[in-house]
Amino acid sequence: xxxxxxxRMQSSEAPALPSVQASVTFAERAGEKPYTYAYQPPEGxxxxxAVSAARTVRIxxxxxxxxxxxxxxxxxxxxGHRSAVRDFWDEAQTLALGHPxxxxxxxxxxxxxxVVVFDHTLRRRAxxxxxxxxxxxxxxxxxPTSIRP
Length: 149
Fold this sequence. Notes:
2 strands
């Protein structure tokens, strides 16, 4: 991306991109390194010491400027790809098709010589179902509210 393009993108005269306003939770700086246990913490230890705060932010669609973005400059790239996976809830199909194609896509986009897809997690809101219930998908990931030990 040229310097002129970057300046245009940062200019207040640049055309507005399609956007939405949303509340996003951000981690706040704290005195110690934050932690959150994914499981029951040891006795007497808080589940988290993370402190977070919600902020209303504008989230812009990058599709209109996708060809102007670079992983090396902005740390973001928008890449079109049609997956061979037809049913992402089918574990065998996701492992057989999705993992290799994802690794290849990352290689192609980044120039990496080796990519390891080590995990994927299916999540879907199931009201009244606890996360990690056998036979049910994981619940959507959530951020802890402002909690201090």
